UniProtKB/TrEMBL annotation:
Any GO MF annotation of the entry: NADP binding
The keyword NADP belongs to this UniProt entry's keyword annotation: yes
Keyword Cell inner membrane: no
Protein name, as recorded: Monooxygenase
Family named by the database record: Belongs to the FMO family.
Protein species of origin: Fusarium zealandicum
Amino acid sequence: MDTSRIHVAVIGAGPAGLTAIKSLLEEGFQVTCFERRPDAGGIWAFSDNPQYTSVTKGTRAQLSKFLLPFSDYPVPDVFPIHPNAEHLVKYYQSYATHFGLVERIVFNASVSSITRTKDDTQWALHLADEESPRLFDKIVVASGSEVTPILPVIEGLDVFEGQFIHSQSYKRAEDFAGKNVVVIGQGNTAGDCAVELSSQASKVYWSHRRGAMVFPRMLNGQRFDAFASWKKTRTGFWVAKHLPSVHRWIFDGFFSWIVWKAWGKLDPQWRLDRNAYYATTISGMVVNDHLVPALRAGDVTSTAGVKRILGPRSVELDDGIILDNVDAIIACTGYNNSLRVLDGIVNYSRPHADARPIPDLYQGIFPLGHTDSIACLNYVIVMDSAATAREVAAMAVAEIWAGKSALPPTSAMETWVRKHQAWFTKLCLSNPLPQYDGQIEAHGWFKFVNEMAGTGVYEHLGWTVKGIRFWLREPKLCSMMAWGVNTPHIYRVFETGKRKAWDGARDEIRHVNELSDIDLGPTPPPKSFIPFELFNNRTVLVACLLGGNMWISFYCYELQFSSYLQVLYNLSVSKTGYITNIYNIVSCGWAIPVGLLLRLTDRCKWQGLAMLLIHILATGLMIKFRMPDTSIAIMASVPHRDVAVGLAILNLVTSVGGAIDQSISGAIWTNLMPSKLAEYLPEELQADALLICGDLTQQLAFPWGSPEGEAIVRTYGEMQKVMTITSLAALAKPIAWILLMKNHRLSEREQTMGLLF
């Protein structure tokens, strides 16, 4: 395809627009970008114009600098871990200059509408300050999702004499110095606004109707997003798609722990109530380092939602409380993810009467009916780096329009759109939190844009032939890309014949991971999953040996105990079950006096020896008791951090002991019993001794007191005798072993209270 004759218009010169210009230019398209602001950078370029959405000068990125760069243009090393608006706008403008994008941008040019030419061959862009439209073959809309503000409907607002604005018009806290301000909203903007105002305003009320999970950027001196590797986030997307309830449960637990770790106990008056849906919904999360401290210090007051305006300076809340002397209300109530510039071009569907209309966009990018000439990079919202997601989407659009990748048939795209709309409608109706327009199922979407762009990432970092080959050839780099820093540079590593690869990607991935390691601090020395050094402690070693031998002894007679009761005492299966269950209950009941004894004596060595001797006596008399509590020895001998592993090792050893003893018991039963039974059975049944041994039903079928029944009873008695002797033999060595244990004073062991993790 000769792309040099195709003219493409890009609307918007923010991160999405800049990457769209570059991707299209790399495929040979003729590109012109229209930006209504005087500079590139989108909302990161501060503007005093109240009609332009922009961050304030003090805004910092929620993600660390390691996750923010474009895929082939590194962030300067000198940037702080979380760059502010000034850093980022300089970076975006430097990117535009470096790749020669600035000369392709028409600044201060606002696109008012787009129409189709009469001959239906091109698109006409109508600019606000130009009479004649400009003609293009294709259009990329990259004007951002924060364009059209949503203003709340408040009863009595017309009588309010104070200042009422949307957060789009909020530019600096100094404008509200000495004032009483109500900030409406629950999201990131509301949190930032309330915190900024607290340094200037006389009183700041944070008015919201629901809670949120508030995360800091840093946790225990380390950046919060350090855990979010490529492999972990993709696995999370997969679980969210296939097991949404499991995904919600996992992330609710994980994020709730993060919140507790960061802030401790939250005051209920702050209204940051917990809801499992917060952990999996963008609108349920707030990233703010200072909001909770400001609430705790009283610099920001959390209140119920605004119900109505009662007077010129009086505001009534949902809980009946009235705020007087209110000077300003700032509505941080979000934006419509508007495709207004495409009115009349994009169709909408309403799958449910209670749901809002949803645009007919394939993969949230291509309008049905115009997939070959219009792409929207400003609509999709995913729980990932927005700049990275839109850059990969821009690559995908360029490769599709260049003919290197192909969209599915129209019918398949229509089917996808209807399924997505049904999914999003169900999400809106079932989720208690409001949903952002443009939310999409991330697992399928990322796979689609990566496949269309030709990044090769999913193929090389997954369980594929290419993935295994890459791991064998470059194991360290493969591990870095999958489990290290989730840097966008991974999308430029592989040459696939589609989007342009970057020769410096590999080195930059290594460099970013090195910087990340420095930032996270020295790596602790590797610790074995099983701390074998615990076996240097003689008490631990003896406890494990003792536990293993106890189970060897126990299973010698326990496995056949049920059949023993049925045959020797002519008991039914139900009565046999009662006896064994009573035994279990009574033996567990011994834990209470044994525990009291340990607490009273404050020791475990000699008590353990006494219990072992009692156990030997009981075994000899065929009265079964449990073995001494070896777990006490483990817990008394290891550091608190190793208790779980120590008990796991003990369970492993006892399980091995049980397995060994089951083998011994089975060998005794299968090798000795047939010959003994043949010896005692009447002559005419001796040939069937082996069959009778293996069939309990047949054994019980012989009348009680008959010669056959007596032979079976006598054989069982002989087998129990052999098994008991074997069991006693297994208990001989533990007497010496237990003498080697250290006699710990239990009260002097280090105790740790609270959460283990």
